[in-house]
Amino acid sequence: MAIKWEGVMPAVTTKFTKDDELDLVTFEKNINAQLEAGVNGIILGGTLGEASTLTPAEKETLVKKTLEITAGQVPVIINIAEQSTKEAIQVAKNAEAWGAQGLMLLPPMRYKATDYETVVYFKEIAKNTSLPIMIYNNPVDYKIEVTIDMFEELLADCPNIEAVKESTRDISNVTRLKNKFGDRIKILCGVDTLALESMVAGADGWVAGLVAAYPAETVAIYKLVKSGDIAEALRIYRWFMPLLELDISPQLVQNIKLAEVATGLGTEYVRAPRLVLQGAERERVKGIIDAAMAVRPELVEYKSL
């Protein structure tokens, strides 16, 4: 399946039972809600998906289950976040064998690679798979920035590098990428609190987090912006902002899973060393969610926009 790299692509949470096993029943309920809302792809095993805690067998199960649920409606993409090039290449090969239709690549984990090392890392993965690739550029959280010069070399040598999850927190980077590469690389905003602004600047899509709990609101914002109804998109976005801010936190997984409970699309269970929110912090986050739920906006018909 060809990937257009546009629209809303949820970075979904991984659902666990109280016994720390995969909860595929709740997972399927959430994926179906994403499809019903009109998302354009499903991304597995990102930061929000607790990738670093998943076993290879669990990743395989999630890919195959998602392919079963989506049944060809949207592409299924898996994130690669490994400590060595050898491991990353193996995950890419596994993903292709399991039937995944695309990859999202983070730079090397734990080791702060140089620009040269980072480019070589991405190139080695790209040449060992036929799958289309989206580079995840998040220097704030992962301390390595993929610069315009680095992208120039990657795009020249790797035709299957097709998109970037733009998470530099610098909206002007959308314009720089467009000015330099045009449509050679698609741009998807990776920061929930900058999504509307990034799309107005020309981003092609949104790799979203709070979509896990609020799929319809997320897709509606995207559709409204792209149809030119900025005023209606802003109405929803302004309501959404306190929730979107839950995504820019070290506890984003716990925060968003608590929001999924509020909308009936998930549970709070996380995998250790993460633990569910406790005490005053849990009450603070729950207060934000409850306040938003009390005034959850009515949505216009957005799917046909």
UniProtKB/TrEMBL annotation:
Gene Ontology molecular-function annotations: 4-hydroxy-tetrahydrodipicolinate synthase activity
Pfam families to which the protein is assigned, alphabetical: DHDPS
Residues annotated as binding pyruvate: 207
SMART domains registered for this protein in UniProt: DHDPS (SM01130)
Catalytic residues identified in the record: 136, 165
SUPFAM superfamilies per the UniProt record, alphabetical: Aldolase
Protein name (Swiss-Prot/TrEMBL): Dihydrodipicolinate synthase family protein
Organism: Zunongwangia profunda
